[in-house]
Automatic annotation (TrEMBL), chains A, B:
Lineage of origin: Bacteria, Bacillati, Actinomycetota, Actinomycetes, Micrococcales
Residues covered by the HTH tetR-type domain: 23-83
Compositional bias ranges of the Polar residues kind: 1-12
DNA-binding region range list: 46-65
Protein name: TetR/AcrR family transcriptional regulator
Amino acid sequence: MAGVSETTTESGTAPRRGYAKGRAKREEILQAAIVMFGEVGYHGASLREIASRVGISHPGLLHHFPTKAALLEAVLEHRDEIDFADFDRDLEQGRTMFDALLRLVQRNALRRPVVEVFAGLAAEATSPDHPAHDYFAQRYPTTVRRMLTELERRAGAGTLRPGIEPAVAARTIVALMDGLQIQWLYSLDGPRDARVDMAADLKTYLDLIVVDPAS
Amino acid sequence: MAGVSETTTESGTAPRRGYAKGRAKREEILQAAIVMFGEVGYHGASLREIASRVGISHPGLLHHFPTKAALLEAVLEHRDEIDFADFDRDLEQGRTMFDALLRLVQRNALRRPVVEVFAGLAAEATSPDHPAHDYFAQRYPTTVRRMLTELERRAGAGTLRPGIEPAVAARTIVALMDGLQIQWLYSLDGPRDARVDMAADLKTYLDLIVVDPAS
């Protein structure tokens, strides 16, 4: 999608400028949706309110996203694109998975709205009839499996600490990241010196279960 | 509150029977609210729908809970009453805090709706203008401090493992419990042998940071 957008923007003909404008408006709606889903959840969000926040009509918004569920899907895809693009680049550049994970958590600490919407949706969508349910129901086991693969690699390389059970450690790394996000979000309204440092706490845990997480 | 209810129910005069009936209806509304907040969150929940689920009119519900925020407050108090009553009794009976905590998590695994509503509200209420924001913003530091007190006691008693920093461990215990709830909720729809065992995973973590969590 990003590639398509670049090509058309560079070409500069009138209909394509229109397309680029449409892409920019779509992006604006997406950002407003991230903020609003973060504020009041998926069920509490209103397409009319999102349209009003980006200065377009309700039918104008429906032109980009015909349903609230379609907008939700786009928000989830957007988050994955952001997260995985950087994360995968870190891995390609030879960083270990846990090093890449710590860097991802550090980046998250700079973008409250994205963390807020994701933590909120993950908790809201535990109900089987929520439109994001299947997304998260698949995402958790997938993420845990990725952790497990890395922990088993480390077991083979002798950098897993004695007595650590990879399957349990894999689940608890993911659980810890989720739980720290919630405490971090609440700590943002408190005094600065009481702010939760998600990456530092995760690093402390990784140090407990593996030898030198970053290598 | 529970004491008041018992007294009036036992007395058996007509107006008091009416009061007991009112208490029963109030309890019914509370249970329906727990389910509905769990399903669609606070913002997504509708008082009309909750009233309809317990077979009363909308004004009838407003007689018990004049606003949605009042109902939310009652749900949060109810959860605390349930949790802390059992937890505190365990402590009074001489169990250690971590033993009591593991028992609390085991009880939670038997009551999906309560876990669902609480995990959902905690994530939804990270927005400062959410009516449950202050509740959770205070609850997290309070819970973390309780863990910290126990970890410091253990440090003094020599049952904290070497190299464990009590302040970090206190935050991560709470974070782990939150995160495991989310994975557990999603695992309930999957195959039985892939179900997350929250208490077992928490126990594994506690074993890493203290010597014999249950003693």
